[in-house]
Every structure is written in structure tokens, then in C-alpha cells.
Amino acid sequence: MTVPLLDIRNLHLAMRSFEGEAHVLNGVELCVNRGEIWGLVGESGCGKSLTGLSISRLLPEPPARYISAEITLEGRDLRALSPREMQALRGKRIGMIFQDPTTNLNPTARIGTQLVDVALAAARHDPTILPPARSRRAGARALALDMMRQVGIPDPEARMMSYPHEFSGGMRQRVLIAMALIGRPDLLIADEPTTALDVSVQAQILTLLKAMVAEHDLGVILITHNLGVVAQTCSHVAVMYAGNVVERGPVRQVIERPAHPYTRALMAAIPTRDTPRGGLQGLEGTVPDLIQPPPGCRFAPRCTRATEACRAAVPPLTSQGPGHEVACLHPVTEDAPHV
Amino acid sequence: MSESTSDPILRIENVTKTYAGRSGLFGRAAPVQALKGVSLDVTRGQSFGLVGESGSGKTTLTRSILRLEEPTSGRILFEGQDMAKLSAKALRALRARVQIVFQDPYASLNPRMSVGQIVTEPMAIHHDLLRLSAAQQRERAAELLTLVGLGPQHLGRHPHEFSGGQRQRIGIARALASGPDLLLLDEPTSALDVSVQAQVLNLLIELQDRLGLTYFFISHDLAVVRYLCDRVALIHHGSLVEEGPTDRIFDAPQTDYARMLIGAAPELRVP
Question: Where does the ABC transporter domain start and stop, copy by copy (chain A) (predicted)?
């Protein structure tokens, strides 16, 4: 069996707050191979972003405290690395894209300068990424231009001289994708990369992301709250609720035969072309208090199928079909009503 | 209701809005045409959806309806009255009948005011019209909160004690406080999670059925517009590209722009 690109096991994370310690990640398990795009979905506060930040170790400790965590990148234990080694890894092996393309660019530096800087920093760890040129800087410039072309920025020579404010939101997000991919990462973590963008631009960015995965054989974690985006873009999906992965598997299985009542509820809340007026189903209740989480399945208090057994212990992920796993004692087996 | 139902409650006639270009160190930039002759009718009791991407002019149009912005040319008629020709007093009276629910429920509620103060404020502002005593205002605030799915027990609480969905319910209660006929809904669910969005959308439908409200719903989410609206207008670069009954627009779009927009919305279906 080959070693997966990214393997997360037993990820338990607590966050200190004024009211006490909140148990925000409760045994997250996720495994990503090259060429796979994993959609990480769930409502606000379910731990999607914290999972992403835990991989690249960007959470300050304290307030974060890892109760347990096994995170390996091609078999290498990320938790055991020194901060310096981790920093090298972040620039080179793990690329990240965040939601807001405006705040992640330096407003006072030209786009070209920012891309060349990233290329030079990445080349310190792996000089082979630079094309042959007179100098390192000339090589970095050539690489930056090439990346801008690849992410579909027209007239890259001229746009290198522009400042971020001269770019539209979609173009800025392309710059950030170029930046994240410039060091040829193996793993790309994209946290809501299209949420701030118009749908037409969103479609372009997601198409670009898919093309980049095919071309560079990356593994991607796409954090989003939009199941439509997942259905259109991802090869796999992991649904999170209150710090747990409650269902995971190939996107078709999960979208067409969602087995966890929470996944079902999430999908019933999205209007489709056939939803009659007033026919949308909201999800009653609220996300549980994570300082004193309910015992057992954290979704049980809102679940219509819950029994006493659900409140006794957290249900483990069990197989529901090839590669399709669900953490539920009473999984739904009928086909989803919308497909 | 005095008018017949076929009369539009809101008529927008050939409205243009031009912003003068910014003048800087190197002279003046070209003027920006935010709206280029927009005309549309909103029928009483219906939900009218205005869809556009960022920079399309939908906010300028909304602000013009509220008279927070003066159109460069064209007219905006509310129940047949030209809003530009109203006296200050008549405009104030009209404002009680046209209310808005904002996009961001975290930014649109004053954190220092209690929910009771937030919901009674429009009643105090329009006191000359509503003539409610302080006790009656409080009673009505409690009724409104119950109507939106909260309750009298929330009157003394402050916005920070509520979730996003509950805050948007408070925003809706405030908008209903002055007894409006027309509600402008400016992306009221785009800051909410889907499960909460579904609750708020269903609440809007329930309120419309119960109170006979007219909605002018601004959004970039086509699925939500399709769910809620009877008619849709697509706006692009300040011009209406297409307008018509919701089913017709979605099933048989006539323009390339409409086809592109509908095609780009990610559907919950694995390709």
C-alpha cells in the first residue's frame, strides 16, 4: 500500500477562551492522496478552518492546545518538525489560499515584486524550480511570469508592474493561487477561495484549480460551506459537524446517497430548481456548546433519528460502501430526494 | 389597500445615475455611469428579484429607491407618486412604508442598544404617523419578535447575545415595525449558513403570505432568487439585461449573459 500524501488521525484540539476550554476538534480523521480534491464542508464553527490551520501548524499554542494529533505528509510526522523545518515545508510542500484576496496581498508592493519574492524564497529550499537564467532574480522573474500565465492573468509582463488595488477580486485570487503554487507544493489548502467572488469568477477559479490539480498532481483540501461547489469541483468530500468528520467518501456517493442525517439536513436546506415555495427545510436547534459538549454523537440533540445509544459514545466512522464512511449508528439508506 | 392589485407598487422609469469622475493629481477621471436607463415595475404582493454581480449597479438602484441617492435622470414612483416631488413631510411618511433589511446582521444592529430599543426605534421615528404610546410600542415590539420567531423574553437582550440567524430576525422585526408595504431585502441571507438561510427564507415567505408584503429582493445567489421570487431582473454594467417571470428566465434565458450566469451557479449535482 502506498503512503498517502496527507494522513490526519486522532486530531483533538482544544482552544482556551474566557468561558473555559472548548473542545473544538474531536478526533478528526482525513486522508488525502495526490490528484484528489477533498471538499471539507460544514457550517460556521464546525472546525473546517481549524483543521486546515492545524495541518500547516499556523495556530498559536496557546490558546490552541493539541490533546492528540497525528498528522503526516508522505509519512513524515509534521508535529515533530522544528519551527524552522515547518516554515520551509509551508513555503515549499504546502501551499495555502485564503478567503479574502485583498488582505493577503501587500497593498504597497507591485504584484510582480510579491511573486518574485515568493519564488526566491521557495527557491532557497529547492533551486530546481527556477528556470535557467542569468541570475537567480531573472530566473524568479521568469517563473513568476510563467505562473501568472498559467493562472490566466492576461498580459502578465504589464500586470507585474501593477499594484493589488488595480486588480479585480478574481484577478487578485488568481495572483494568490499563482503564489501558492509557485513553490510546486504537493498539498494545497484552499480555505473558502471563492466565497468573496461573483459566481462567474468563482466558476473560472474552480476550473483553474481543477486544471492545476491535473497538471501538477497535487492533493487539495478545499474548505467551503457550499455543497454545490463541492459537487462541481471535488473528487471527495468530508462533512464536518462540531469538530468531527461525520461522513466522508467519493463525492458522488456522498452527494447522491448521503448517509448521515446531518449531511441530509444540510442538503435539504439548499434550494434547487425543484424546491417548491416554502418547501425548504431549515435545521432546527443550534450548534452545541463545545465547552461542555453533549456526550456521544454531537449531532444527537438535533437529530430526528437519535436514540439512547447515540448519547452514550461518539460513533466511529464505519463503512457505508466503497470508500464511503459515516459516523452514525442509524445511517439513512434511501437515495437522496433531490437526485 | 386602496389601489387595485394590478397597479405596480413601485415603478422605476428610465433611471440613470452618473457619478462624476474622481479628480486627482492628474486631472479628472471619466464619469462613471452606474445606471443606464433602468425601467421596471414591481407588482404589489409579489417578490421581485434583482440579480447582479458586484459593480452591476444593484446597490445604486436600491439606494435610489430609498432616496439615499438622487437619480441623475428618470423617475421612481411609489404608488404612482414621483418620490422626487414629495415634500419633506410626505417623504418621511413614505419612508415608514418602504423599509430595508441589510445584508450583514452583525453590522446593522447597534451593539449598545437592547433588542427592544432597536425594534421600537422606527416606531418612535414615525410617531407622528403611528401614534403609539411607549407602552404600546413595547407591546408591538413583543408582537413583532414573536412574529419573527423570537419572543418577548428577548426584548431586554443585546445583539451580541444572538446568533447570525437570530440577528437577521431582529433586523426583519425592525423593518416591519413601521408597518411597511414594501421591503427591500439586500442580500439578507448571504452572511448566514445554509441551514439558517433556509429558516430565514421560510420566515420571509410566511410573513409575505400573512402580511401581504411586497419584496424587492437583491441577491447574487440565483438559487435563492429562484426559490423566493415571482419575477427576476438581471442587471449588468448598469443596464437591465433581462427581466421576466422567474421560471421563464431560468428555463429559457434569452441573453448570453443570463445563460452564462445561470450556467455558472454551482448546482448540487455531481457532473
Answer: 6-267
CB contact under 8 A, A280 and B198: yes
Distance CA B203, CA B201 (A): 5
The fold of the B8-264 domain, in CATH, is: Rossmann fold (3.40.50)
- State how beta strands A37-41 and A219-224 pair: parallel
Q: How far apart are CA B132 and CA B136, in angstroms?
A: 5
Cα separation, A208 vs A108, whole angstroms:
27
B220 and chain A: CB distance < 8 Å anywhere? yes
Task: For an interface test with A, give the residue of B194, B219, B241 to mutate (most A CBs within 10 A).
Answer: B194
Residue contacts between A and B (CB atoms, under 8 Å): 102
Could you read off the pLDDT of A317-329 as tens digits, one per residue? 999 888 899 999 8
Identify the structural domains of chain A with CATH numbers, from first to last: 33-62+81-93+187-339 (3.40.50.300), 101-184 (no CATH)
CA atoms of B109 and B175, how far apart (whole Å)? 12
**Paired residues of A223 in beta bridges:** A40, A191
A179: Cβ contacts below 8 Å, ≥ 6 apart: A95, A114, A115, A118, A147
